[in-house]
Amino acid sequence: MRRGFLAVLASVFWIGCFPVHAADGFSGSWEGPWYRGMTSGKMVLQIEADGSGVVEFKNLDNFGNETVKLSNVKMSMESYRFSASGEGPGVFVATTELVSEGRLLEGKGEYEGFPIKFKLQRR
User: Fold this and answer.
1) What is the dihedral of CA 4, 6, 10, 12, to 10 degrees?
2) pLDDT score for 3
3) Of 28, 32, 54, nearest to 117 (Cα)?
4) 11 or 46: which carries more pLDDT confidence?
5) Mean pLDDT in the chain?
6) Are 93 and 110 a contacting pair, CB within 8 Å?
7) For the residues 55-63, what does the mean pLDDT come to?
8) Which of 4, 34, 71, 93 is deepest in the core (most CB within 10 A)?
9) Full set of structural domains in the chain with CATH
10) CA angle centred on 115, ends 117 and 68, rounded to 5°
11) Span 42-51, mean pLDDT?
């Protein structure tokens, strides 16, 4: 009994020595298409290991073509949520999740009241 307890205690201590960061699965450079109705373009999302990041859209009306810093980042093991303010008055708000064994980052968002979907692959 005592040996089992010590084994459990040792394994808990060992696991605790390696911190798990939710952003690790999401971190990296992602690129792919976004869709809003009949309009589409390219999206580039860079997520750092600490969860911070930037996003860039091509062809998204009123957002601009410049790289924009992410804000209101919330992450868990299952999802990564963020906001980004472009040139226009609207704020892009999105939630993403890893799919296809972590090879794809799928997301849904909203900008200027319109839904946007995107599928990004690691660069």
Assistant:
1) 70
2) 61
3) 32
4) 46
5) 86
6) yes
7) 95
8) 34
9) 21-122 (2.40.128.20)
10) 70
11) 96
In the chain, the amino acid numbered 104 is: L
What residue type is assigned to position 16 of the chain? G
Q: Which segment of 8-17, 20-29, 104-113 scores lowest on mean pLDDT?
A: 8-17
For every residue of the chain, which 3-state class applies, written as one string?
Answer: CHHHHHHHHHHHHHHHCCCCCCHHHHCEEEEEEEEECCEEEEEEEEECCCCCEEEEEECCCCCCCCCEECEEEEECCCCEEEEEECCCCCEEEEEEEEECCCCEEEEEEEECCEEEEEEEEEC
